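Replying to the earlier thread about multi-chain prediction with a worked example.

Input:
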Amino acid sequence: MENSNSYSPYSSSSVDSTKPSLSVNLSLSLTFPSTSSQRATSQDWPPIKPRLRDTLKSLRLRQRGYNTALFIKVYMEGVPIGRKLDLSTFSGYESLLENLSGMFDTSVICGNRDRKHHVLTYQDKDGDWMMVGDIPWDMFLETVRRLKITRPERC
Amino acid sequence: MNYFPDEVIEHVFDFVTSHKDRNSISLVCKSWFKIERYSRQNVFIGNCYSISPERLLRRFPCFKSLTLKGKPHFADFNLVPHGWGGFVQPWIEALARSRVGLEELRLKRMVVTDEGLELLSRSFVNFKSLVLVSCEGFSTDGLASIASNCRHLRDLDLQENEIDDHRGQWLSCFPETYTSLVTLNFACLEGETNLVALERLVARSPNLRSLKLNRAVPLDALARLMACAPQIVDLGVGSYEDEQDSESCLKLQAAIRKCTSLRSLSGFLEAAPHCLSAFHPVCHNLTSLNLSYAAEIHGSHLIKLIEHCKKLQRLWILDSIGDKGLEVVASTCKELQELRVFPTDLHGGGNTAVTEDGLVAISAGCPKLHSILYFCQQMTNAALITVARNCPNFIRFRLCILEPHKPDHVTSQPLDEGFGAIVQACKNLKRLSVSGLLTDQVFLYIGMFATQLEMLSIAFAGDTDKGMLYVLNGCKKMRKLEIRDSPFGDAALLADVNKYETMRSLWMSSCEVTLGGCKRLARKAPWLNVEIINENDNNRMEENGYEGRQKVDNKLYLYRTVVGTRVDAPPFVWIL
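Result:
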């Protein structure tokens, strides 16, 4: 039986999964007899370093004719240490927002700032900070350099 | 009771360099303790939370070199969440305040900041050597500080760090008068490199021995660099795209031929398949070869290269080399001491690139082999028994069968007997990683025979607490034990609390230990930090008043310490 063709990461596609106990990688075609082995996500098994994992993932995608991985940094305003995200694995803005909301455990939206939600912005190739969502997704992928999730308005 | 003046004893101590030996001589008597204290040059701290910088400085006021390690080993595989800890800042600040003449700093799995690097660069006039391995939290701005301010810098060695590359001009921050560079490794930087600054730096560094480039250094630049530095011993080729421009290729080949001191080759981060042939002229001198990132190069090209490498002692390679390739290694590389074979197919797609046959061939052909890391899809007890018979000299034996719980693929038996043979034959075994289908029996063997074992990694193995108990009771020299996804629980954890004082650390994730068990352990052993790491819950576990019987969701990490609970733990780390 052929292994599942598409590398189908579950929603949290960054290198660092925040929900290991929920993220069963169903694309593994091997039969794991015990439930504990289902906890081995594709991010922490087999035990190889992130750099090799990324290299092999890019290689697989290239071999299958997909675009190479597009890893960019994501920061939450006020939090000094950021995350990394592979944008090439999302189909559009909706799945991106869904994933970010899960990763940072808060509601992240596109659009104007309001009191409740975090708004997503990005830095484009000119170095300018822009609101996410205005341009078509494919164009966005070409120009995005990094992401920042802003804090909700205070007053 | 000294028959010699202190200076003579100190001079004798200068010849004692290993940390273990220095620790031993400091225990002989008060006088030796004092002399050793003031003459200790190199300090090694395996767990940055086991001691504080203040206590370090009180004990060793005169050291020149400090090695610090932060996160536990499983952090390499994404098992430790971001923000867990391992911050070097307090250490740099304390050292800067003191009068220590720091010359060398080696950090592994620690969080470093640009501010810290800036402070480091300004605080120690004779600072010579910075080695960062698997660290994160800093950018090329921090590197710019080091380059600008460390007049006597010899080594800047960045291995597999997460560095925010601002694509800046850090390389041009080395002053024009600066000529003392010996080691420069920036292979892990992802961004563009200022090639002009790099070439000028290399051209004015006659002592340069080790140069490892990142992927942004193209072929023609590589040729120019090698032409400037024919004395190079250790080269990391950045990218090596197949250039149509034959002039570049010819220049490169000419430059390579002049590098008669070249002994170590690595990199090939983006490599066209045919590029290795340019290096054939220098292969006969190579002692170290790392092709573990050259994912695009086919096995046949790897084999052609290795056929020329008769003096190879260290080989890191991808499994695309195949069993046939390993047979070539076995027949060619008679001096081989260390082999690592990494996987290319992470999802077990049935491509059995290397099997137990490759491992057996290596064990039969390479009599000096003492360290191995081998990823494969399948293994048999018979093969492991043969390997044990062929190679009783293993110091490090790490086998990773990609599919958890996979049995001997011929007999369908657990691999207990195979690993049992390894530990029985290899009397000097210090490090072991086991995998495949394993029962408590393998741990009985490990406890019985692996008397020198210091580090053990267990994943998806064992049946009951007895397994872990065999290990804890038997392996007297155990220092680091890391376990994931194995059915060991409170009974094993609590059986011998004093054992943990003889160990650096214990990691258990996705096992059967409960919160109640961990709390009991923490009460019995106040000299341990018992950490529960659960990035999903922050502190909700405590707030909801979880039952003591609740299984520890996620991770337990405990380690001995003389300075009590650490104050920099994030909310998702609960220190009991």
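The radius of gyration of chain A is 17 Å.

Feel free to reuse this layout for your own posts.
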